[in-house]
Amino acid sequence: MAKLLLQAMILIRLKYLPKFFDIPLCIIFNSSFSSGIVPEGLKIGQITALFKKGDRKLASNYRPVSLTSIICKIMEKLIRQGIVDHMNKYGLFSDRHFEFIGGRSTGLQRLKVLDHCTEILDNGGSSDARFHISV
């Protein structure tokens, strides 16, 4: 509980006092990016089990989740954005890639597949599909 309270206090300070934290964080992040070394404090996470569905007594109905610091999450977002920007700049994403790209969702991917199948059927072709439904 104390860790969650500390994380909440850090988040509030980062949100409402950004000018106070931006230079120190910038120094930490740039140092880490240039050296390739992540500060030890950012590597620490608390692993907890998150309930999915079903019987709460079965371990298989839980998935592990790593709770990391707010600062670590900010750093992860910066790294992710740098990778995505690089891949966009050099056209490394396929038109068929939908996940983790802004403006493209897996829902849109499903619609694109449905449109493709419909077009095939409209042109007299055939399409096979196999669905797996778990209960």
Q: Can you walk through the features of this model?
A:
This protein folds into two domains: 2-92, no CATH class; 94-135, no CATH class. Helix 1 packs across helix 2 (18-35). It is built from five helices and two strands; from the N terminus they run H-H-H-E-E-H-H. The chain is extended and about 65 Å long. The model has no long low-confidence stretch (mean pLDDT 80). Helices cover 55% and strands 9% of the residues. It has a two-stranded antiparallel sheet. The protein has helices at 2-16, 18-35, 40-43, 70-89, 106-122, and strands spanning 46-51, 62-67.
List keywords for this structure.
two-stranded antiparallel ribbon; 135 residues; 9% strand; mainly alpha; Reverse transcriptase domain-containing protein; 5 helices; single chain
